[in-house]
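Encode chain A's predicted structure.
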Amino acid sequence: MRATLMYGAGDVRVENVPDSVIKQPTDALVRVTSSCICGSDLHPYHSMSRDSGPARMGHEFIGIVEDTGSEVSTVRKGDLVVAPFAISCGTCVFCREGLYTSCLHGGFWDNEPLEGGQAEAVRVPFADGTLVKLNVAEDSVLMPSLLTLSDVFGTGYHAAVQGGVNERTSVSVIGDGAVGLLAVLSAKRLGAEQIILMGRHPARTDLGREFGATDVVAERGEEGITKVRELTGGHGTHVVLEAVGHMPAYEQAFGIVRPGGTISRVGVPQYEDAPIGFGSLFGGNITLTGGPAPVRAYIEELMPDILNGTIEPGKVFDTTTDLDGVPEGYQAMDERKSLKVLIRP
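Encoded structure for chain A:
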């Protein structure tokens, strides 16, 4: 079978690899019908050393179950399923609490060196706890939107939920990538009336307005902070959803959050040290929250709005390719020529 491998920074290849097969009685073998490139894939695309490669890529996918282990009971051959970006057993103490990203037995796809979603097939460990059955046809026009449930929509929604967004909160979203835009959609879904999107790519911020942004601030740094405060009576917003992960975005977040407010981070932090002291968070009684989204906990909640057409998060996909086009897809996303690339193997 064919799969995507990253050999080092900027070096993505599609190659023949050994077929994925059932190894454990809790496994399922899934033939991938839709996958995509994630913004977080660009972090290793910028910095991965050749000593670390090659690495299998892809943690978001939909596919058809081709085979199951003897202990799998919730899905069977022929089912169309979506896989979250984290593998979870579904039965441990953290899974029962809905914190699937802290599963005692699962983990992230990065920990499965011989598997990845940007491929023709995937072995899915803990199929009962990980996979969610989709009751739609394989060729449904809803497929791009349903694919966002595997990561970006659930991640944007997690940011909003952790931030405590509701009809009484003003919200800023930092980042006009797919997660940031779906954080806007999530904030709107939760009732926020003022949603400020901080981004500077017009095609993306236009989509952000369609998703519910009331204001767009293209400025960055101190200029951006000043503009947001002007839009909020000088106070800042109750909630800031940070969907980038770099230090300037975090610094901007604490520059625009209202006293007593909350910063919710879902952009994978590319830093360990960050301002949290009296002059940044402590003095203003500001809460810092966020983390890897347990998207498995949100899929059943968010799916009905996709199925009935209330929302269309799949609009974040602006490019479609087959496996041969994946290396060019990485380059296009890195150069901001594409927002998010959909892969149909």
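Residues 156-290 form a domain with the Rossmann fold fold (CATH 3.40.50.720).
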